[in-house]
Amino acid sequence: MSAAAAEVSLFDQATLVDPYGAYKTLRDRAPVHYEPALNVHVVTRYDLVREAIRDTQTFSSEFGNFLDKSREIAFASAPPDIQRRLREINERMVELPPTMLTLDEPVHTRYRSLVGRLFTGSEVKKSQPTVQGVIDRNIQNLLDAPADGAGRRQADFMSAFAFPVPLRIIGDRLGIPEEDRPLFDEAATAAASGLRLSPQTPEQMVHRGELALGLQELLASLVEARRRAPADDMISILANSELAPVEDDPARLLTEGEALSVLQQFLVAGHETTTSAFGWGLLLLCRNPEIQAEIRGNAALVRTFVEEALRMEAPVQGLPRLVTRDTELGGFPLAAGSMIMLRFGAANRDERQFEAPDRVDVHRPKAGMQLAFGSGVHHCIGAPLARQELNLGFIALLDRFEDFRLAEGAEPEAEPSFILRNMPKLPICYRVRS
To answer: How many domains does the chain have?
Structure first.
């Protein structure tokens, strides 16, 4: 256990909500720090995170067992009758094999290449009118909020804009029929909740399980339907494209479980993280009101602001890697079979890489060096779409509104989570620009 362990525990409630002080302590005193609560070594310094990302032979992405153990811990906390109900639900679900996130090369590329064409620069550019339309429709939610006598409107930014915009866009991208949107929206939102640490009642645990089953059944039926009648969407691509041959596995269509596994990853990556980035970005504008006027009407400065928002509040705070051989990282020994946790959120505030890292700087050079989307072969495939949504979204928000502030008495904070960093509510007040 590192010397910093006596004063830093990443699982303290206060640290889960605001980890940045703990991150600095660890970067300075124990950049590879053993965290007994999850039996992982936490890596917090930018250069060491990048080093581990690049060395995929030593630091493997086949960390599925780590996620399984986390789910087992949550399951064990449930009362016996709830465990029984959850087992019944689980027995009806399709087993999901490892795909993109938890695989190494060359198998990882088999799956990634199937959907990669949806996120090329040309494809993302082609989608801009659709994305802009979704943004404009949800801008109306903020326009429709009631105004006080001084003309100030008040709304919860998360429910009015940050949640519905990415969710609608990923649903469109996947090809979810309109009549299935209510189930999809609720289930997709719940899918990310398993990565958080907020307490859940037994009833909520069962409801989340039922939603997961319902979502699987919906997606499986759509995969089957698209095999009979393809459309221009991601589900059709997954249903009808062949995996490239690898070793003893010839070219073939995805199994039902493989298709569902890829789709579930896109649900979290395609809306939860962008929702969080919208929320944290708007909070930064509220806390730094001078930036609103500075970047309004300047697309280049908005782009840098988006990178700064991603850097300062990485929606995915960290992901694990499996150590495949006895090695060391930054002089710290690591045994084969141990787990490390790469903390993107800590690396993004490393003063060794970013000057004045706790300050928003819309003129920061090389702001895109932030690691919110990861790096290397596992760099987030949906990053171009997320950046498009965020840039168009903040341009539209600043064009239509001004004087964004926190609503009186509002104290927004993150929901406790070791993986994701989301903000459930963001009460704001603002004015419509004339």
So the answer is: 1
